[in-house]
Write a structure and sequence with these properties.
The complex is a heterotrimer of chains A (435), B (345) and C (330). By secondary structure, chain B is mainly alpha-helical. Chain B has 13 helices and no strands. Chain B is globular, with a radius of gyration of 31 Å. In chain C, helix 5 links the parallel strand 6 and strand 7. In chain C, helix 3 crosses helix 4 and helix 4 runs parallel beside helix 5. Chain C starts with 24 loop residues before the first strand and ends in a 5-residue tail after the last helix. The chains are: A mainly alpha (435), B mainly alpha (345), C alpha/beta (330).
Chain lengths: 435, 345, 330
């Protein structure tokens, strides 16, 4: 008994480490912990398996503008006929009759032959961009006004107009410009990003971030109070608020490594499976980092809250369950309307903001990318489906600041929420008589 | 460590030839001879010369046992009446409160139908009156009914019904009586189902009656809509059965109070979230087959005849999946209950 | 002592010190009520040093008193001080206190050594110190050879001793044991009693509760009797017994020839009356139980009586309590 700790920090450290270790060991001996963690793993792995299947099988490229067909049965696909200026609907007019005659090209040359090449340059709210890769606009028979169907004075381009009010861009293409993009490439890219965001938001932050605390943290102190073992801990020179905090630390000691481990596995698999120029998508790592971080913060705040509810009332779960349902609704809302102010009263709204912020930072051209996929009409098949999915999961950070600032603000808010729940839980615990 | 049998607590028998040694001294069992000297416990060390064997008489009981249904009725009654009054199974106050709140909230469509009948406002009736979609919505609507109402009631009910019995050791009280385990768990199942039926089916019936009364519907209307009502009623029974069997299975495998409730909710809502995720991301509906709610919704849509929202596979797949889920749940339940150790855990 | 947070979360800048003159335990006019039921009513006592037995039937308020002392419950009235500090407000005095709760539930998945080590570290010991201390106390309570077995495999007596070890690990000055003998076999009982007496001899303040008089009798002479939340008696057991001996007592003897025995017994000085509940039973009334017990054996042996049972139906807690609560009437 001689070596007494000489500073408050050393004493805290010893107690904190003791309770944290104890709590982690307690979790490890419970079968339910492993069941919950295992089921969580299986559930999100299911989504991962489907993702792998989709990525491996890819998307079918379709002929979006129909110019690979040979409507007049003269052996030349429509696209080739347009390029050479012959009549695609007459078998007496085709490039083979030209001098010198042109050999027919295979139809596959006219699938995915005119991809997106849109970019935004400078601050102008009205820009001209795009390029007619296959020449079916430049070579179009007819007047200049036919080639400038968007009336911006430039033939065969795409007019980009930024709305003065919303700041969003609208796309007005000329006829046959960028009209047959590479479906598979676009859909793979869009689906991959949608997967990262969707998995991160609904898989990690919502499912794991919400249900793990619901299972693991609700009884963290309440179970001990019910069974009477809390007496051992409270008979030691340690304030109850500290016990509360250190128990939470022990819970985090189980949940956080689990989330980090899963995050690494998912980042690796999706990084290798996803479409990229190299072998690995290093760009996504920032987003995965943010996802894991957001899930960790969510599990911290929820853990504090559910543990406090458990302390407050023997039937704390009755309060926790409607709250969980509320958070589920808020999660869906944040993807549709990230600027809704009601989201500020939720936990998940802030946590998802971290993911959004990282997505903005890691994928700066997202808006344009989405615009391409969603604004080209209904005949774009998998492009539009995947773009809509991506649009569903992608949102700009709702507080209206830059990516990094939003992430910092959201983190600070989450930490404040966690400490409010800690103080409240500690205060309730302090006032509890323990039978 | 010389350990000797400890002294007898108090001398209870003297033999006539028992030597009287006065103060007894006990060598301490635990390594020290000190400690007993200062005590003055009079003790007579003596060999016991007499013993006593009690005559054991077992009298078989020759009374007549009530029939099985009567015993089962007692269990059922015990659970059901606990919702309403004291002296029966003590459901927690919050549970009872929540059931009341959900009951009232479930009547919202009936109330608005009554209102539309009273003030004669057609637009309210169009939104809330009895129709194919509204009957479906009353039983199987996702939000709020199958998020906030029915699964939570089921979760609160099953949370305690078997696991708490095990925790408190009260299951031993049942099993020491002439009741089979099958009856025990069956009655628990039925009582939980009946309480849910109060919320789902009773409110459905009240809703239908509200329309008839407030709008003065005649026979022709009733003939037209009664099959819809029956279909909705059957769907409601399907919902109740599924929630109860999954919930009781969870309750039978766990010891905790929180686990079955949270487990049921995370199965219902978690699979739904996963299925929505996959369907949105990859345009594949296959995971809906794992979600109990979506299977029920699909079957319910077919039964009631509303516009199906699941178009990638036929409803019979959902139905098969639902049967498999229930079969697994019931198998788990029966296996666990029949092998349950009757101890206080 | 080490610095700590108090329950209000204020970090204590100065190390907690017991007030020099304060007794280990002080209760002043303490009441604890649940609604209209008083679990403890107006208890005033101070304890410092020695082994004190708290005696009372189930529901007398023994556990309530201990929980109040350990800051688990908040007193409805009155003030409680552990070494001069209010335990509900500040957990610092627990550094000098060891508490053995009555609950049977323990952490079955830990070994006794892990259990004691973990909770020793809450007293601010390092891992190594805690391990050494755990070995010491487990040896002290006689669990050294099973220290590395899971508590779940322990018998009840071993579990009680593990709990005691956990309470002793910080070398406390005040040790509170709530029903430490409950459910133990005689051997474990003896061991635990020895441990408690040993602690008393080491100069610690020990408070131990039981509802069985004979158990307390073998541990200590200093007792407190609680009944229905009220303090009935306090002081030296012999002094209390002395007073109790003066009250009418019965000794019930079952003998082959009750009448012959009665003839011999009636001659003893302190016998005030004799009756025969049935043929083989003899019931002796006395005001001085001790004297009768001193002489009875010799009378029996000298006259060759065959005795089957001998019993003091009044020498249990219930009848003492009955006497004390009825104001001396039996």
């Amino acid at each position: 008994m001689e070596a007494k700790p000489n500073t408050i920090y050393r004493a805290l450290d010893r107690k904190a480490a003791a309770i944290t270790e104890f709590t982690m060991r307690q979790y490890r001996t419970k079968a339910s912990t492993w069941v919950v963690l295992g089921v969580g793993l299986v559930a999100i792995s299911l989504v991962m398996l489907i993702y792998i299947d989709v990525m491996a099988s890819g998307f079918e490229s379709i002929d979006n503008d129909g110019d690979s067909r040979d409507w007049d049965n003269d052996g030349y696909p429509t696209g080739q006929e347009i390029k050479w200026g012959t009549d695609p609907f007459s078998d007496t007019s085709h490039p083979g009759l030209l001098d010198p005659p042109v050999e027919p090209e295979p139809a596959s040359n006219y699938i995915d032959e005119d991809g997106f090449d849109i970019s935004i340059n400078g601050d102008s709210t009205s820009q001209s961009t795009g390029f007619d890769d296959d020449g079916d606009c430049y070579n179009l028979d007819g007047t200049s006004s036919r080639k400038d169907s968007n009336n911006n004075g430039v033939e065969c381009d795409i007019a980009l107009i930024q709305s003065r009010y919303t700041g969003e861009w609208d796309i007005y293409p000329d006829i046959n410009v960028d009209e047959d993009p590479d479906d598979s490439a676009y859909a793979l890219e869009a689906t991959h990003m949608a997967f990262v965001l969707g998995m991160g938001k609904m898989g990690f932050v919502l499912l794991l971030g919400l249900f793990l605390p619901l299972f693991l943290a609700t009884g963290l102190i309440r179970d001990e109070m019910t069974s009477g073992t809390m007496h051992f801990m409270l008979a030691k020179p340690i304030a109850r608020t500290e016990v509360f905090l250190y128990r939470i630390l022990g819970y985090l000691g189980i949940v956080w490594p689990y989330l980090i481990g899963l995050g690494i596995i998912f980042a690796l698999i999706s990084g290798f499976m996803g479409p990229s120029d190299g072998i690995f998508r290093f760009n996504d790592l920032g987003v995965w980092l943010a996802i894991v971080f957001a899930a960790m913060m969510a599990s911290l705040v929820y853990g504090m809250l559910f543990c406090a509810l458990g302390v407050m009332w023997r039937y704390g779960i009755v309060l926790a369950i409607p709250f969980a349902a509320w958070e589920l609704g808020m999660c869906l809302l944040s993807m549709g309307a990230p600027e809704a102010s009601i989201l500020r009263f939720s936990v998940i709204g802030w946590a998802l903001m971290i993911v959004d912020a990282a997505a903005v930072l890691a994928w700066p051209n997202m808006e344009l990318f989405l615009l391409q996929g969603t604004s080209f009409g209904n005949d774009f098949g998998s492009i539009q489906t995947s773009a809509l999915a991506l649009q569903f999961f992608y949102a700009t950070p709702g507080v209206g600041t830059s990516g990094l600032a939003s992430a910092v603000i959201a983190t600070i808010v989450l930490l404040i929420q966690a400490s409010v729940f800690w103080f409240t839980g500690g205060a309730i615990f302090k006032g509890k008589e323990i039978e | 460590m010389s350990e000797e049998p400890a002294q007898t607590e108090a001398p209870t028998e003297f033999g006539a030839e028992a030597p009287v040694t006065g103060q007894g001294r006990m060598a301490a069992a635990w390594g020290t001879s000190a400690g007993d000297e200062d005590l003055s416990v009079p003790q007579v060390a003596q060999p016991s010369s007499t013993g006593h064997i009690f005559q054991q008489e077992y009298k078989p009981w020759h009374g007549t046992l009530n029939p099985r249904w009567m015993r089962n009725w007692a269990i059922l009654r015990h659970h059901l009446l606990g919702i309403f009054k004291k002296g029966h199974r003590p459901w927690g106050m919050p549970t009872r409160l929540f059931i009341l709140v959900v009951f009232i909230a479930s009547l919202s469509d009936a109330a608005l139908t009554l209102l539309s009948g009273l003030i004669g406002d057609g637009s309210i009736h169009q939104l809330w009156g009895v129709s194919r979609d509204n009957l479906y919505g009353h039983v199987l609507g996702f939000f709020p009914r199958n998020v906030l109402y029915y699964p939570i009631v089921a979760a609160l009910l099953v949370g305690a019904v078997i696991s708490e019995d095990r925790q408190h050791g009260t299951s031993a009280l049942y099993f020491s009586r002439p009741i089979t385990r099958f009856d025990y768990v069956g009655m628990k199942f039925i009582s939980v189902a009946i309480i849910q039926a109060l919320i789902i089916l009773l409110t459905l019936t009240l809703y239908y009656l509200a329309e008839i009364i407030s709008l003065g519907r005649g026979w022709a209307w009733i003939m037209d809509t009664f099959p819809l009502f029956i279909a909705a009623f059957l769907s409601g029974m399907m919902v109740i059965f599924t929630y109860t069997s999954i919930g009781l299975a969870l309750s039978s495998v766990s010891k905790g109070k929180f686990f079955p409730g949270i487990g049921l909710l995370s199965i219902v809502l978690g699979t739904k979230v996963l299925a929505v995720l996959v369907s949105t991301l990859f345009d594949r509906d296959i995971l809906y087959l794992l979600s109990p709610y979506d299977c029920m919704a699909h079957v319910g849509q077919t039964l009631i005849g509303t516009q199906p929202t699941y178009d990638q596979y036929s409803w019979s797949w959902s139905f098969a999946s639902l049967i498999v889920m229930n079969a697994i749940a019931l198998y788990t339940l029966s296996a666990r209950v029949s092998s349950m150790e009757v101890t206080r855990e | 002592m080490m610095p700590d947070f108090d329950q209000d979360g204020k970090g204590q800048t100065q190390a907690w010190q017991p007030e020099p003159a304060a007794p280990a335990v002080l209760l002043e006019g303490v009441s604890k009520s649940y609604g209209r039921i008083f679990a403890l009513s107006n208890i005033t006592l101070a304890l410092n040093g020695g082994v004190t037995g708290v005696l009372g039937p189930n529901g007398a308020g023994k556990s309530t008193m201990f929980k109040l002392l350990m800051g688990k419950l908040k007193p409805s009235q009155g003030k409680i001080r552990l070494f001069g500090t209010d335990p509900w407000k500040n957990p610092a005095p627990y550094a000098r206190v060891g508490f053995v709760p009555e609950h049977e539930k323990m952490y079955d998945w830990m070994t006794a050594h892990q259990f004691v080590t973990t909770f020793a570290r809450l007293n601010g010991l390092t891992r190594q110190e805690a391990s050494i201390e755990a070995d010491r106390v487990l040896n002290f309570v006689g669990l050294a050879d099973v220290a590395h077995k899971k508590i779940g495999q322990y018998s009840k007596g071993m579990r009680q001793r593990a709990k005691i070890a956990h309470a002793l690990v910080n070398d406390p000055e005040l040790i509170i044991l709530d029903e430490p003998l409950q459910g133990c076999d005689p051997l474990a009982r003896t061991t635990i009693m020895n441990v408690i007496r040993e602690l008393g001899r080491m100069g610690r303040t020990v408070i131990v509760s039981s509802h069985i008089l004979q158990e307390i009798e073998r541990i200590t002479e200093q007792i407190i009797i609680l009944h229905n939340g009220r303090l009935l008696a306090l002081g030296n057991l012999h002094a209390i017994r002395e007073k109790l001996d003066q009250i009418p007592h019965r000794i019930s003897i079952e003998a082959d020839d009750a009448k012959a025995l009665a003839k011999d017994v009636i001659d003893l000085d302190d016998v005030s009356g004799i009756s025969f509940p049935n043929k083989n039973h003899l019931s002796i009334q006395t005001h001085n139980l001790g004297a009768i017990h001193a002489h009875l054996p010799s009378v029996i042996v000298n006259n060759n009586h065959r005795i089957h049972t001998i019993d003091n139906p009044d020498d249990d807690l219930a009848s003492i309590l009955g006497y004390l609560t009825s104001g001396g009437r039996v």
